[in-house]
Amino acid sequence: MKVYKFEAFTSAIEKNIREGIFKPGHKLPSVRELKAQYETSISTIQQGYDYLVATGLVESVPKSGYYVANRPDISRKKEKTNRKPIVRDAVFKHHLELITSMMAGRKYAEFNVAAPGDLLMPQKLILRTMQQVIREEGAGLLRYYPSNGSTKLKSQIIKKAAAYQTMLHPDELLITDGALQALYIALSAVCNAGDVIAVESPCVFSALEVIRVLQLRVIEIPVDPLTGFDIAFLKKACRHNTIKAIVVTPNFHNPTGILLTDEQKQDLLAVGHLHNIAIIENDIYGDLFFHGHRPTNIKSFDDSGLVLTYTSYAKTMAPGIRLGWLAAGKYTQRAEQIKFSLGSSVSPIYQEVMQRLLAGNSYDRHVRSFRMQLAKHAHFTIHLLSAHFPKNTMMLTPAGGYNIWVKMPESTDMADFYRQCEKIGVRFTPGYTFSFSGAFEKYFRIVFADKFTTKRVAAIRMAGKLAR
Predict the structure, then answer these.
(1) 267 by DSSP, 3-state: which?
(2) Residues 242, 198 contacting (CB under 8 angstroms)
(3) Separation between Cα atoms, residue 183 and residue 335, nearest integer Å
(4) How far apart are CA 355 and CA 332, in angstroms?
(5) Residue 52 and residue 66: Cα distance in Å, rounded?
(6) 179-190 vs 332-341: helix crossing angle, rounded to 10
(7) From its phi and psi, is residue 292 left (phi > 0), alpha (psi between -120 and 50) or beta?
(8) Which residues have a Cβ under 8 Å from the Cβ of 297 and sit 6 or more positions away?
(9) φ, ψ for residue 140 (rounded to 5)?
């Protein structure tokens, strides 16, 4: 059985909680205090606290520290998986209405849409900048822009990425119409129909739809609730299958919110190098960290060109800003051809708006405020779920982003739960939409990227009551 460095202190804390020595609300030692006491690294202590939070024993309070959870789950143990790497055909039902508000209207309290709510978007900033761009650029916005994107915009993206040790080359950078187009281009540049790829499991529905359209076959790699993407499982899969690409979200995985360590990212890259597998990393939530510094990417450690990284500003600014980018590495030539076939230019006005926001401090200032709000919302949501959902409900505390992954008790009739939620006007994203295999029937995702109005708080309380 694998032993982790952090167990030197987590085992003691866990024992004191389970034996009732540390009561709910008890403040635990700070990261720096434990670092000095155990003579280890801050990252090890942080990983240990992340483990304790994931078990439900401990909760993190932004800018305050770590506390024994108000309702600690003293019975929870690490879940083990007996699943074997199985190649599955990507046959998938259409779940679009479950992740958007298209069918809902205003009568629903929506916790299923992975996008910032109206009240958290920097509406005035975006519209003011857009008006300025229209005044200054005029008819120039009606013409084609370069196929790979504005040179000025790419320059700002490269500058921002360098701040978190990700070195991008302007020739490999493609401006895309959002993250999904970037993923489509990346997979098309690396794979052909019928090829096998490895995907994280659970995996966001929209990515699975792209895989289905491209007629790829998948091996689902479990995302462990404590340690993240199961690299040992991936290695096993690589020994028995020819895998062309690995699709992974190392920074604040959707839906679990898990952040991989730098060591894990390097281990994953080593697997790619060993088997000559392209690594396609989704960094869409990378700017939305709750504590510490902006995490690095797998691409930060790559000098081979095997890593393709993509992101979008739809998650950090507004869903209507359909603008992202893809750094395609050694697959750039093929990616350029595919990008051109999908449309020769991304909206000029979006490119100009984002270029200006990135060039000044407006984007950084907004994201700084946004992620503080998200951290508070995450803490508040977990408290609501803990207080009003069944006792054995389990959830993962995210390290960033805006999703919480919730597992209901085994006795829960999930179909009835969703039917009752529809009746009272509340929507979550069902767990079965996150896999081709149907492995997450008892799970759902809740998004906390909107203001908690009285109506939304009441909706969660009522949903919890229905589940009891």
Answers:
(1) helix
(2) no
(3) 10
(4) 22
(5) 10
(6) 120
(7) left
(8) 164, 166, 250, 251, 265, 281, 283, 286, 307, 309
(9) -60, -25
104, β-bridge pairs: none
pLDDT in the model for residue 96: 41
In this prediction, residue 458 carries a pLDDT of 94
Strand-pairing partners, residue 310, are: 282, 326
Owner of token pair 């797998």: 298
Look at the block and give the residue holding tokens 């990507």: 90
Sign (positive or negative) of CA dihedral 148, 149, 155, 161: negative
Token pair belonging to 385: 């779920």
Q: What was the pLDDT predicted at 83?
A: 57
Enter the pTM of the model.
0.79
State the DSSP H helix or E strand holding residue 353, giving kind and residue range, or none if neither: helix 348-359
340 token code pair: 């051109």
228 pairs with which residues across the strands? 224
Could you state, in chain order, the average pLDDT of each consecutive group of 10 residues for the chain (468 residues)?
Answer: 70 84 85 88 83 79 79 53 54 45 59 89 95 94 90 96 94 96 97 95 93 93 91 94 97 95 96 97 96 94 97 95 96 95 88 96 95 94 94 92 95 93 92 87 95 93 92
Spatial distance between the Cα atoms of 297 and 266, rounded to a whole number of angstroms: 10
Amino acid present at 94: H
What integer pLDDT is reported at residue 351 of this predicted model? 96
Tokens 């995985």: give the residue. 253
- pLDDT given for residue 152 in this prediction: 96
At 146, the amino acid letter reads P
| CA gap 75, 89 in Å, rounded | 37
pLDDT of residue 90: 47
- Residue 410 in 3-state DSSP? coil
Specify the 3-state DSSP secondary structure of 216.
coil
